[in-house]
Design goal:
heterodimer; A: 271 residues; alpha/beta; Rossmann fold; 2 domains; 4-stranded antiparallel beta sheet; 9 helices; 10 strands; 32% helix; B: 268 residues; mainly alpha; 12 helices; 74% helix; globular
Chain lengths: 271, 268
Protein backbone atom coordinates (compact mmCIF):
# COMPACT_ATOMS: atom_id res chain seq x y z
CA UNK A 1 0.00 0.00 0.00
CA UNK A 2 1.02 3.55 -0.49
CA UNK A 3 3.07 5.19 2.18
CA UNK A 4 4.47 8.47 0.96
CA UNK A 5 4.68 10.84 -1.95
CA UNK A 6 7.51 12.86 -3.45
CA UNK A 7 9.88 10.26 -2.21
CA UNK A 8 12.86 11.66 -4.06
CA UNK A 9 12.14 15.22 -3.12
CA UNK A 10 13.67 16.03 0.20
CA UNK A 11 11.88 19.38 0.44
CA UNK A 12 8.37 17.98 0.45
CA UNK A 13 7.37 14.71 1.97
CA UNK A 14 3.72 14.71 2.89
CA UNK A 15 2.58 11.32 4.09
CA UNK A 16 -0.72 9.98 2.87
CA UNK A 17 -2.88 7.90 5.16
CA UNK A 18 -3.02 4.17 4.54
CA UNK A 19 -6.13 2.88 2.84
CA UNK A 20 -8.43 0.44 4.54
CA UNK A 21 -9.63 -2.58 2.58
CA UNK A 22 -13.25 -1.40 2.75
CA UNK A 23 -12.55 1.95 1.07
CA UNK A 24 -14.35 2.03 -2.28
CA UNK A 25 -12.34 2.51 -5.45
CA UNK A 26 -12.32 6.11 -6.58
CA UNK A 27 -12.18 4.99 -10.20
CA UNK A 28 -13.01 1.56 -11.59
CA UNK A 29 -12.75 0.89 -15.30
CA UNK A 30 -13.80 -2.41 -16.85
CA UNK A 31 -13.12 -3.56 -20.40
CA UNK A 32 -13.05 -0.03 -21.79
CA UNK A 33 -12.94 0.11 -25.55
CA UNK A 34 -13.04 2.91 -28.09
CA UNK A 35 -13.19 2.31 -31.82
CA UNK A 36 -13.12 4.93 -34.58
CA UNK A 37 -14.15 3.20 -37.78
CA UNK A 38 -11.47 0.55 -38.29
CA UNK A 39 -9.11 2.07 -35.75
CA UNK A 40 -9.09 0.67 -32.24
CA UNK A 41 -7.89 3.50 -29.97
CA UNK A 42 -8.52 1.75 -26.65
CA UNK A 43 -8.83 -2.00 -26.53
CA UNK A 44 -10.39 -3.62 -23.47
CA UNK A 45 -8.64 -1.64 -20.76
CA UNK A 46 -9.43 -2.39 -17.11
CA UNK A 47 -7.86 -0.71 -14.10
CA UNK A 48 -8.73 1.13 -10.93
CA UNK A 49 -7.49 4.01 -8.80
CA UNK A 50 -7.76 3.85 -5.01
CA UNK A 51 -8.19 6.71 -2.62
CA UNK A 52 -4.80 8.14 -1.60
CA UNK A 53 -3.22 6.66 -4.66
CA UNK A 54 -1.46 8.39 -7.56
CA UNK A 55 -1.54 6.25 -10.66
CA UNK A 56 0.59 7.12 -13.68
CA UNK A 57 -0.90 6.46 -17.09
CA UNK A 58 2.10 6.19 -19.39
CA UNK A 59 2.72 5.43 -23.00
CA UNK A 60 3.99 6.86 -26.25
CA UNK A 61 2.00 9.40 -28.25
CA UNK A 62 -1.13 7.80 -29.65
CA UNK A 63 -1.15 4.98 -27.08
CA UNK A 64 -4.63 5.98 -25.90
CA UNK A 65 -3.94 7.96 -22.70
CA UNK A 66 -5.89 11.09 -23.58
CA UNK A 67 -8.67 8.98 -25.12
CA UNK A 68 -9.06 7.19 -21.78
CA UNK A 69 -9.04 10.48 -19.88
CA UNK A 70 -11.64 11.96 -22.23
CA UNK A 71 -13.87 8.93 -21.65
CA UNK A 72 -13.51 9.30 -17.87
CA UNK A 73 -14.43 12.99 -18.23
CA UNK A 74 -17.61 12.09 -20.10
CA UNK A 75 -16.67 13.98 -23.27
CA UNK A 76 -16.05 10.83 -25.27
CA UNK A 77 -18.44 7.90 -25.29
CA UNK A 78 -16.85 4.46 -24.96
CA UNK A 79 -17.67 1.89 -27.62
CA UNK A 80 -17.85 -0.68 -24.82
CA UNK A 81 -17.02 -1.08 -21.15
CA UNK A 82 -17.94 0.72 -17.94
CA UNK A 83 -16.55 3.60 -15.91
CA UNK A 84 -17.49 3.97 -12.26
CA UNK A 85 -16.44 6.97 -10.21
CA UNK A 86 -16.94 5.64 -6.70
CA UNK A 87 -20.45 4.19 -6.83
CA UNK A 88 -21.66 6.32 -9.76
CA UNK A 89 -21.82 4.78 -13.23
CA UNK A 90 -20.69 7.53 -15.61
CA UNK A 91 -23.01 6.31 -18.36
CA UNK A 92 -26.15 6.57 -16.25
CA UNK A 93 -25.27 9.09 -13.51
CA UNK A 94 -23.07 11.51 -15.41
CA UNK A 95 -23.61 14.66 -13.32
CA UNK A 96 -23.24 12.78 -10.06
CA UNK A 97 -20.00 11.15 -11.22
CA UNK A 98 -18.49 14.34 -12.65
CA UNK A 99 -19.38 16.38 -9.56
CA UNK A 100 -16.77 14.26 -7.73
CA UNK A 101 -14.20 14.58 -10.48
CA UNK A 102 -12.05 17.38 -11.81
CA UNK A 103 -9.13 17.73 -14.16
CA UNK A 104 -6.51 19.94 -15.65
CA UNK A 105 -4.79 19.59 -18.99
CA UNK A 106 -2.55 21.85 -20.98
CA UNK A 107 -4.96 21.61 -23.93
CA UNK A 108 -7.92 22.78 -21.81
CA UNK A 109 -6.83 26.14 -20.38
CA UNK A 110 -9.19 28.31 -18.38
CA UNK A 111 -10.99 30.86 -20.59
CA UNK A 112 -8.42 33.57 -21.22
CA UNK A 113 -11.01 36.36 -21.33
CA UNK A 114 -11.97 35.94 -17.66
CA UNK A 115 -9.83 36.81 -14.64
CA UNK A 116 -8.61 34.14 -12.23
CA UNK A 117 -11.31 35.01 -9.70
CA UNK A 118 -14.05 35.12 -12.35
CA UNK A 119 -13.00 31.73 -13.67
CA UNK A 120 -12.92 30.19 -10.21
CA UNK A 121 -16.35 31.60 -9.40
CA UNK A 122 -17.75 30.34 -12.73
CA UNK A 123 -16.40 26.83 -12.26
CA UNK A 124 -17.25 26.88 -8.57
CA UNK A 125 -20.90 27.44 -9.47
CA UNK A 126 -20.77 24.75 -12.16
CA UNK A 127 -19.46 22.23 -9.62
CA UNK A 128 -21.77 23.45 -6.85
CA UNK A 129 -18.92 24.22 -4.44
CA UNK A 130 -20.24 25.11 -0.97
CA UNK A 131 -18.79 28.23 0.73
CA UNK A 132 -17.27 29.16 -2.60
CA UNK A 133 -15.68 32.47 -1.63
CA UNK A 134 -13.73 30.88 1.22
CA UNK A 135 -12.69 27.92 -0.91
CA UNK A 136 -11.48 30.26 -3.67
CA UNK A 137 -9.41 32.32 -1.22
CA UNK A 138 -7.92 29.15 0.21
CA UNK A 139 -6.84 27.85 -3.21
CA UNK A 140 -5.60 31.24 -4.40
CA UNK A 141 -3.35 31.34 -1.34
CA UNK A 142 -2.33 27.70 -1.68
CA UNK A 143 -1.29 28.12 -5.32
CA UNK A 144 0.31 31.48 -4.72
CA UNK A 145 -1.75 33.38 -7.29
CA UNK A 146 -3.04 36.14 -5.05
CA UNK A 147 -1.44 38.90 -7.10
CA UNK A 148 -3.16 37.53 -10.24
CA UNK A 149 -6.66 37.41 -8.75
CA UNK A 150 -7.94 40.10 -11.10
CA UNK A 151 -5.68 39.30 -14.04
CA UNK A 152 -7.19 37.73 -17.15
CA UNK A 153 -6.01 34.14 -17.47
CA UNK A 154 -5.02 34.68 -21.09
CA UNK A 155 -2.14 36.96 -20.12
CA UNK A 156 -0.70 34.72 -17.40
CA UNK A 157 2.56 32.87 -17.97
CA UNK A 158 2.48 29.09 -18.50
CA UNK A 159 3.35 28.47 -14.87
CA UNK A 160 0.73 30.88 -13.60
CA UNK A 161 -1.89 29.39 -15.92
CA UNK A 162 -1.01 25.92 -14.68
CA UNK A 163 -1.42 27.04 -11.07
CA UNK A 164 -4.76 28.71 -11.88
CA UNK A 165 -5.86 25.53 -13.70
CA UNK A 166 -4.93 23.43 -10.70
CA UNK A 167 -6.84 25.75 -8.39
CA UNK A 168 -9.88 25.17 -10.62
CA UNK A 169 -9.23 21.40 -10.62
CA UNK A 170 -9.25 21.31 -6.83
CA UNK A 171 -12.18 23.69 -6.28
CA UNK A 172 -14.74 20.97 -5.66
CA UNK A 173 -12.35 18.85 -3.56
CA UNK A 174 -12.64 16.07 -6.13
CA UNK A 175 -12.38 12.47 -5.12
CA UNK A 176 -10.86 11.74 -8.51
CA UNK A 177 -8.34 14.15 -10.01
CA UNK A 178 -7.21 13.72 -13.62
CA UNK A 179 -3.98 15.41 -14.59
CA UNK A 180 -2.96 15.23 -18.23
CA UNK A 181 0.70 16.30 -18.40
CA UNK A 182 0.22 18.99 -15.75
CA UNK A 183 3.87 20.08 -15.78
CA UNK A 184 4.63 19.77 -19.49
CA UNK A 185 4.99 23.49 -20.12
CA UNK A 186 6.84 24.35 -16.93
CA UNK A 187 10.51 24.91 -16.11
CA UNK A 188 12.04 22.37 -13.69
CA UNK A 189 11.69 24.64 -10.68
CA UNK A 190 8.03 25.44 -11.34
CA UNK A 191 7.35 21.78 -12.16
CA UNK A 192 8.81 20.67 -8.82
CA UNK A 193 6.69 23.24 -7.04
CA UNK A 194 3.53 22.10 -8.82
CA UNK A 195 4.27 18.42 -8.12
CA UNK A 196 4.67 19.20 -4.44
CA UNK A 197 1.37 21.06 -4.32
CA UNK A 198 -0.51 18.27 -6.08
CA UNK A 199 0.96 15.65 -3.79
CA UNK A 200 0.13 17.74 -0.76
CA UNK A 201 -3.45 18.08 -1.96
CA UNK A 202 -3.82 14.38 -2.69
CA UNK A 203 -2.45 13.43 0.71
CA UNK A 204 -4.59 15.88 2.65
CA UNK A 205 -7.84 15.36 0.77
CA UNK A 206 -7.61 11.58 0.36
CA UNK A 207 -8.07 11.88 -3.36
CA UNK A 208 -7.24 9.42 -6.11
CA UNK A 209 -5.12 10.83 -8.91
CA UNK A 210 -4.67 9.64 -12.48
CA UNK A 211 -1.57 11.34 -13.87
CA UNK A 212 -0.18 11.24 -17.39
CA UNK A 213 3.31 12.46 -18.11
CA UNK A 214 6.21 11.92 -20.45
CA UNK A 215 8.64 12.91 -17.73
CA UNK A 216 9.73 9.58 -16.22
CA UNK A 217 11.68 11.25 -13.46
CA UNK A 218 8.48 12.97 -12.39
CA UNK A 219 6.51 9.74 -12.59
CA UNK A 220 9.02 7.94 -10.38
CA UNK A 221 8.76 10.75 -7.86
CA UNK A 222 5.01 11.02 -7.56
CA UNK A 223 3.32 7.83 -8.72
CA UNK A 224 2.55 4.88 -6.49
CA UNK A 225 1.70 2.68 -9.44
CA UNK A 226 2.07 3.03 -13.19
CA UNK A 227 0.22 1.57 -16.16
CA UNK A 228 2.08 1.38 -19.46
CA UNK A 229 -0.20 1.66 -22.47
CA UNK A 230 0.69 0.51 -25.94
CA UNK A 231 -1.70 0.43 -28.89
CA UNK A 232 -4.66 1.04 -26.60
CA UNK A 233 -3.85 -1.82 -24.21
CA UNK A 234 -2.25 -1.99 -20.80
CA UNK A 235 1.09 -3.64 -21.42
CA UNK A 236 2.69 -3.36 -17.98
CA UNK A 237 1.59 -2.40 -14.50
CA UNK A 238 3.47 -1.98 -11.27
CA UNK A 239 5.56 0.10 -8.92
CA UNK A 240 7.57 2.62 -10.94
CA UNK A 241 10.63 1.94 -8.77
CA UNK A 242 10.65 -1.82 -9.33
CA UNK A 243 9.10 -2.15 -12.78
CA UNK A 244 12.26 -1.31 -14.80
CA UNK A 245 14.35 -3.97 -13.02
CA UNK A 246 11.57 -6.54 -13.37
CA UNK A 247 11.88 -6.09 -17.13
CA UNK A 248 15.65 -5.89 -17.33
CA UNK A 249 15.89 -2.13 -17.68
CA UNK A 250 17.90 0.35 -15.67
CA UNK A 251 15.43 3.20 -15.53
CA UNK A 252 11.78 3.92 -16.12
CA UNK A 253 12.78 5.98 -19.13
CA UNK A 254 14.53 2.95 -20.68
CA UNK A 255 11.39 0.92 -20.09
CA UNK A 256 9.27 3.67 -21.65
CA UNK A 257 11.47 3.70 -24.76
CA UNK A 258 11.18 -0.08 -25.04
CA UNK A 259 7.40 0.16 -24.77
CA UNK A 260 7.40 2.81 -27.49
CA UNK A 261 9.83 1.08 -29.87
CA UNK A 262 9.66 -2.64 -29.16
CA UNK A 263 6.36 -3.39 -27.46
CA UNK A 264 6.45 -6.95 -28.82
CA UNK A 265 9.46 -7.69 -26.63
CA UNK A 266 7.26 -6.94 -23.62
CA UNK A 267 4.36 -9.03 -24.79
CA UNK A 268 2.25 -6.59 -26.81
CA UNK A 269 0.40 -8.80 -29.30
CA UNK A 270 -0.90 -6.07 -31.59
CA UNK A 271 1.52 -3.46 -32.87
CA UNK B 1 -32.83 17.31 -12.33
CA UNK B 2 -31.79 20.84 -13.34
CA UNK B 3 -29.61 22.69 -10.84
CA UNK B 4 -30.06 26.45 -10.76
CA UNK B 5 -26.46 27.09 -9.68
CA UNK B 6 -25.17 25.59 -12.91
CA UNK B 7 -27.54 27.72 -14.99
CA UNK B 8 -26.45 30.71 -12.89
CA UNK B 9 -22.82 29.91 -13.79
CA UNK B 10 -23.57 30.36 -17.51
CA UNK B 11 -25.31 33.68 -16.78
CA UNK B 12 -22.54 34.89 -14.50
CA UNK B 13 -19.89 34.11 -17.11
CA UNK B 14 -21.85 36.08 -19.71
CA UNK B 15 -22.31 38.97 -17.28
CA UNK B 16 -18.55 39.11 -16.62
CA UNK B 17 -17.80 39.12 -20.33
CA UNK B 18 -20.32 41.83 -21.20
CA UNK B 19 -19.41 44.00 -18.21
CA UNK B 20 -15.75 43.94 -19.07
CA UNK B 21 -16.01 44.50 -22.81
CA UNK B 22 -17.61 47.42 -24.71
CA UNK B 23 -17.20 45.29 -27.84
CA UNK B 24 -19.80 42.94 -26.34
CA UNK B 25 -21.99 45.53 -24.64
CA UNK B 26 -22.53 47.92 -27.56
CA UNK B 27 -23.82 45.36 -30.12
CA UNK B 28 -26.63 44.49 -27.70
CA UNK B 29 -28.39 47.70 -28.68
CA UNK B 30 -26.36 49.82 -31.12
CA UNK B 31 -27.29 48.06 -34.37
CA UNK B 32 -30.93 47.81 -33.35
CA UNK B 33 -30.90 51.51 -32.44
CA UNK B 34 -29.32 52.39 -35.79
CA UNK B 35 -32.06 50.41 -37.55
CA UNK B 36 -34.78 52.27 -35.65
CA UNK B 37 -33.24 55.65 -36.42
CA UNK B 38 -32.76 54.82 -40.10
CA UNK B 39 -36.25 53.41 -40.58
CA UNK B 40 -37.72 56.10 -38.39
CA UNK B 41 -36.54 58.77 -40.81
CA UNK B 42 -37.56 56.70 -43.83
CA UNK B 43 -41.11 56.41 -42.46
CA UNK B 44 -41.21 60.13 -41.71
CA UNK B 45 -40.17 60.85 -45.26
CA UNK B 46 -42.72 58.39 -46.70
CA UNK B 47 -45.44 60.03 -44.60
CA UNK B 48 -44.68 63.35 -46.27
CA UNK B 49 -44.56 62.14 -49.88
CA UNK B 50 -47.60 59.87 -50.02
CA UNK B 51 -50.92 61.40 -50.86
CA UNK B 52 -53.01 58.72 -49.14
CA UNK B 53 -52.24 60.08 -45.70
CA UNK B 54 -51.18 56.62 -44.53
CA UNK B 55 -49.05 56.56 -41.41
CA UNK B 56 -46.04 54.33 -42.10
CA UNK B 57 -44.69 54.49 -38.57
CA UNK B 58 -46.64 51.55 -37.12
CA UNK B 59 -46.37 49.55 -40.37
CA UNK B 60 -42.71 49.92 -41.24
CA UNK B 61 -41.08 51.05 -38.01
CA UNK B 62 -43.16 48.55 -36.02
CA UNK B 63 -42.10 45.78 -38.39
CA UNK B 64 -38.43 46.77 -38.09
CA UNK B 65 -38.67 46.80 -34.31
CA UNK B 66 -40.34 43.39 -34.15
CA UNK B 67 -37.85 41.87 -36.59
CA UNK B 68 -34.85 43.33 -34.74
CA UNK B 69 -36.26 41.95 -31.49
CA UNK B 70 -36.44 38.47 -33.03
CA UNK B 71 -32.87 38.87 -34.35
CA UNK B 72 -31.55 39.99 -30.93
CA UNK B 73 -33.18 36.98 -29.25
CA UNK B 74 -31.58 34.60 -31.74
CA UNK B 75 -28.17 36.26 -31.47
CA UNK B 76 -28.47 36.24 -27.67
CA UNK B 77 -28.52 32.43 -27.73
CA UNK B 78 -25.80 32.04 -30.35
CA UNK B 79 -23.41 34.62 -28.88
CA UNK B 80 -23.47 32.98 -25.46
CA UNK B 81 -22.64 29.64 -27.11
CA UNK B 82 -19.97 31.18 -29.36
CA UNK B 83 -18.19 32.58 -26.30
CA UNK B 84 -17.39 28.96 -25.43
CA UNK B 85 -16.22 28.32 -28.99
CA UNK B 86 -14.01 31.43 -29.05
CA UNK B 87 -12.44 30.68 -25.66
CA UNK B 88 -12.06 26.94 -26.46
CA UNK B 89 -13.97 26.14 -23.29
CA UNK B 90 -15.91 23.07 -24.42
CA UNK B 91 -13.73 20.56 -22.62
CA UNK B 92 -13.89 22.45 -19.30
CA UNK B 93 -17.61 22.94 -19.70
CA UNK B 94 -18.79 19.53 -20.84
CA UNK B 95 -16.43 17.66 -18.51
CA UNK B 96 -18.25 19.31 -15.59
CA UNK B 97 -21.56 18.14 -14.03
CA UNK B 98 -23.43 20.59 -16.30
CA UNK B 99 -26.22 18.86 -18.21
CA UNK B 100 -27.30 19.78 -21.74
CA UNK B 101 -30.69 20.95 -20.46
CA UNK B 102 -28.96 23.25 -17.95
CA UNK B 103 -26.62 24.58 -20.62
CA UNK B 104 -29.50 25.31 -23.01
CA UNK B 105 -31.47 26.93 -20.19
CA UNK B 106 -28.45 29.16 -19.53
CA UNK B 107 -28.29 30.15 -23.20
CA UNK B 108 -32.02 30.97 -23.28
CA UNK B 109 -32.07 33.01 -20.06
CA UNK B 110 -28.94 34.85 -21.16
CA UNK B 111 -30.75 35.68 -24.40
CA UNK B 112 -33.81 36.95 -22.50
CA UNK B 113 -31.61 39.34 -20.55
CA UNK B 114 -29.48 40.58 -23.45
CA UNK B 115 -32.39 40.93 -25.91
CA UNK B 116 -34.35 42.88 -23.28
CA UNK B 117 -31.64 45.55 -23.34
CA UNK B 118 -31.99 45.89 -27.12
CA UNK B 119 -35.79 45.89 -26.91
CA UNK B 120 -35.85 48.64 -24.27
CA UNK B 121 -33.51 50.87 -26.29
CA UNK B 122 -35.56 50.28 -29.47
CA UNK B 123 -38.83 51.00 -27.66
CA UNK B 124 -37.50 54.22 -26.16
CA UNK B 125 -36.27 55.47 -29.53
CA UNK B 126 -39.37 54.39 -31.46
CA UNK B 127 -41.80 55.82 -28.93
CA UNK B 128 -40.02 58.99 -27.84
CA UNK B 129 -38.37 60.04 -31.10
CA UNK B 130 -40.70 58.71 -33.80
CA UNK B 131 -44.01 58.54 -31.95
CA UNK B 132 -44.65 54.83 -32.42
CA UNK B 133 -47.65 53.85 -30.29
CA UNK B 134 -48.02 50.21 -29.32
CA UNK B 135 -51.64 50.76 -28.38
CA UNK B 136 -52.49 50.43 -32.07
CA UNK B 137 -51.65 46.71 -31.92
CA UNK B 138 -53.87 46.17 -28.88
CA UNK B 139 -53.69 42.90 -26.98
CA UNK B 140 -52.19 41.20 -30.02
CA UNK B 141 -48.87 42.78 -29.04
CA UNK B 142 -48.42 40.05 -26.40
CA UNK B 143 -48.62 37.09 -28.81
CA UNK B 144 -46.56 39.07 -31.34
CA UNK B 145 -43.66 39.34 -28.92
CA UNK B 146 -44.10 35.78 -27.64
CA UNK B 147 -44.09 34.26 -31.13
CA UNK B 148 -41.00 36.22 -32.15
CA UNK B 149 -39.25 35.39 -28.88
CA UNK B 150 -40.01 31.67 -29.14
CA UNK B 151 -38.94 31.50 -32.76
CA UNK B 152 -35.76 33.46 -31.98
CA UNK B 153 -34.91 30.93 -29.27
CA UNK B 154 -35.66 27.99 -31.59
CA UNK B 155 -33.55 29.39 -34.40
CA UNK B 156 -30.72 30.29 -31.99
CA UNK B 157 -30.59 26.73 -30.65
CA UNK B 158 -30.76 25.36 -34.21
CA UNK B 159 -27.86 27.63 -35.24
CA UNK B 160 -25.64 26.60 -32.32
CA UNK B 161 -26.42 22.96 -33.10
CA UNK B 162 -25.09 23.57 -36.61
CA UNK B 163 -21.92 25.20 -35.24
CA UNK B 164 -21.46 22.29 -32.86
CA UNK B 165 -21.89 19.84 -35.73
CA UNK B 166 -19.74 21.57 -38.36
CA UNK B 167 -17.12 23.28 -36.20
CA UNK B 168 -16.08 26.85 -35.43
CA UNK B 169 -15.96 27.83 -39.12
CA UNK B 170 -19.72 27.29 -39.31
CA UNK B 171 -20.09 30.51 -37.34
CA UNK B 172 -20.58 32.27 -40.69
CA UNK B 173 -23.81 30.31 -40.95
CA UNK B 174 -25.30 31.97 -37.85
CA UNK B 175 -25.21 35.65 -38.71
CA UNK B 176 -27.09 35.72 -42.05
CA UNK B 177 -29.98 33.48 -40.92
CA UNK B 178 -32.37 36.39 -40.12
CA UNK B 179 -31.54 38.09 -43.43
CA UNK B 180 -32.16 34.85 -45.34
CA UNK B 181 -35.51 34.32 -43.62
CA UNK B 182 -36.79 37.89 -43.83
CA UNK B 183 -38.13 37.72 -47.44
CA UNK B 184 -40.11 34.59 -46.50
CA UNK B 185 -41.33 36.08 -43.22
CA UNK B 186 -42.99 38.91 -45.18
CA UNK B 187 -41.81 41.55 -42.76
CA UNK B 188 -42.67 44.52 -44.98
CA UNK B 189 -45.25 43.17 -47.43
CA UNK B 190 -48.22 40.76 -47.45
CA UNK B 191 -47.51 37.07 -47.89
CA UNK B 192 -49.76 37.19 -51.01
CA UNK B 193 -47.04 39.24 -52.70
CA UNK B 194 -44.76 36.21 -52.72
CA UNK B 195 -44.74 33.56 -55.47
CA UNK B 196 -46.59 30.36 -54.46
CA UNK B 197 -43.49 28.34 -53.50
CA UNK B 198 -42.33 31.15 -51.20
CA UNK B 199 -45.80 31.32 -49.67
CA UNK B 200 -45.51 27.65 -48.71
CA UNK B 201 -42.24 28.40 -46.91
CA UNK B 202 -43.78 31.50 -45.36
CA UNK B 203 -46.57 29.44 -43.79
CA UNK B 204 -43.94 27.41 -41.95
CA UNK B 205 -42.40 30.54 -40.41
CA UNK B 206 -44.20 31.80 -37.28
CA UNK B 207 -43.11 35.45 -37.77
CA UNK B 208 -45.05 35.64 -41.06
CA UNK B 209 -48.30 35.27 -39.05
CA UNK B 210 -47.21 38.10 -36.77
CA UNK B 211 -46.52 40.50 -39.62
CA UNK B 212 -49.69 39.53 -41.45
CA UNK B 213 -51.72 40.14 -38.29
CA UNK B 214 -49.93 43.41 -37.69
CA UNK B 215 -50.88 44.69 -41.14
CA UNK B 216 -54.46 43.45 -40.77
CA UNK B 217 -54.86 45.27 -37.45
CA UNK B 218 -53.42 48.49 -38.87
CA UNK B 219 -55.80 48.23 -41.84
CA UNK B 220 -58.67 48.07 -39.37
CA UNK B 221 -59.32 44.35 -39.72
CA UNK B 222 -59.91 41.82 -36.94
CA UNK B 223 -57.07 39.99 -35.16
CA UNK B 224 -56.73 36.42 -36.37
CA UNK B 225 -56.41 34.76 -32.94
CA UNK B 226 -56.45 31.21 -34.40
CA UNK B 227 -53.61 32.26 -36.73
CA UNK B 228 -51.59 33.69 -33.86
CA UNK B 229 -52.30 30.63 -31.72
CA UNK B 230 -51.13 28.42 -34.56
CA UNK B 231 -47.92 30.44 -34.99
CA UNK B 232 -47.28 30.28 -31.24
CA UNK B 233 -47.77 26.50 -31.33
CA UNK B 234 -45.49 26.28 -34.35
CA UNK B 235 -42.77 28.34 -32.64
CA UNK B 236 -43.08 26.20 -29.48
CA UNK B 237 -42.78 23.04 -31.57
CA UNK B 238 -39.65 24.48 -33.21
CA UNK B 239 -38.10 25.05 -29.78
CA UNK B 240 -38.57 21.39 -28.90
CA UNK B 241 -37.33 20.36 -32.34
CA UNK B 242 -34.22 22.54 -32.02
CA UNK B 243 -33.55 21.22 -28.48
CA UNK B 244 -33.90 17.66 -29.76
CA UNK B 245 -31.54 18.41 -32.66
CA UNK B 246 -28.94 20.01 -30.38
CA UNK B 247 -29.06 17.03 -28.02
CA UNK B 248 -28.66 14.59 -30.92
CA UNK B 249 -25.72 16.53 -32.32
CA UNK B 250 -24.14 16.79 -28.88
CA UNK B 251 -24.44 13.02 -28.43
CA UNK B 252 -22.94 12.52 -31.88
CA UNK B 253 -20.08 14.85 -30.91
CA UNK B 254 -19.48 12.87 -27.71
CA UNK B 255 -19.56 9.60 -29.64
CA UNK B 256 -17.13 10.76 -32.32
CA UNK B 257 -14.80 12.74 -30.04
CA UNK B 258 -15.67 16.06 -31.63
CA UNK B 259 -16.32 17.70 -28.25
CA UNK B 260 -12.91 16.69 -26.97
CA UNK B 261 -11.15 18.02 -30.06
CA UNK B 262 -13.61 20.63 -31.20
CA UNK B 263 -11.16 22.81 -33.12
CA UNK B 264 -10.27 19.88 -35.37
CA UNK B 265 -13.67 20.10 -37.14
CA UNK B 266 -13.05 17.05 -39.31
CA UNK B 267 -13.46 14.23 -36.82
CA UNK B 268 -17.03 13.51 -37.78
Amino acid sequence: MISAVMRNDATTEPVRPAQTPSTPKVLAIENLRKVYGDTVAVDGVSFHVDRNEIVGLLGPNGAGKTTIINMILGVLEPSAGTIHIEDADLATHRSQALARTNFTAVYAPLPGNLTVVQNLRFFGLLYGVPHLAGRMDELIRQFDIERFRDTKCGVLSSGEQTRAGLAKAMLNQPHLLLLDEPTSSLDPSAARDIRARICEFSSQEAVGVLWTSHNMHEVEQVCDRVLFLSHGRILLEGDPKNLPREHGKETLEDLFITVAREPLSLGDPAP
Amino acid sequence: MMRTHRIAAILLRQFYLIRGSPARLLPLFVWAAVDIVLWGFITRYLNTVTSTGQNFVPTLLGAVLFWDFFTRVMYGVTTTFLEDVWSRNFLNLFASPLSIAEYLAGLVISSILTSSIGLIVMLLLAILVFGLSFFVYGLALIPFLLVLFFFGIALGVFAVAMVLRYGPAAEWFVWPIPAILSPFAAVFYPVATLPPWMQYVSRLLPPSYVFESMRTILAGGPVSWPGLLWSLSLATAYIFLAGWLFTRIYRHAVRTGLIARYSAETLS
